[in-house]
Amino acid sequence: MDETPHPLQLEGLRRMTPAQKLEMVCALYEAGIQLRVAGLRTTHPDWPREKLEFEARRSLTYAGT
User: Fold this and answer.
1) 26-30: long-range contacts at Cβ-Cβ below 8 A with a sequence spacing of 24 or more?
2) Cα 38 to Cα 26: distance, rounded to the nearest angstrom
3) Which of 53, 5, 64, 62 minimizes the C-alpha distance to 30?
4) Where are the alpha helices (DSSP H) in the chain?
5) What pLDDT shows up at residue 65?
6) What is the DSSP letter of 17?
7) pLDDT tens-digit profile of 13-61?
8) How many whole angstroms separate alpha carbon 59 and alpha carbon 53?
């Protein structure tokens, strides 16, 4: 994925405070966790919610390595 951001996107990011940027990153991370939970639920429907969330977070922690 090598898309150049639109100038309006860049301007919007420049206007955001560091706290707003961090909030955006946290929201995206949480959305990723929920997507991973949904995927795990399809292969492990018997797992409780806590195990699904634990495994989702664990898998995303090491996703880049």
Assistant:
1) 29/60
2) 19
3) 53
4) 7-15, 18-43, 49-61
5) 67
6) -
7) 999 999 999 999 999 999 999 999 999 999 999 999 999 999 999 998 8
8) 10
